[in-house]
Amino acid sequence: MNYEGSCFCGAVGIAVSGEPVAEGYCHCASCRSWSAAPLNAFTLWKPDAVRFTRGERNVGVFRKTDRSHRKFCRTCGGHLLTDHPLWGLVDVYAATIPAHRHRPALHVNYAESVLRIRDGLPKMKDLPKEMGGSGETVPE
Ligand SMILES: [Zn+2]
Ligand SMILES: [Zn+2]
Question: Which ligand is nearest to the CA of 133?
Answer without folding.
Answer: 2
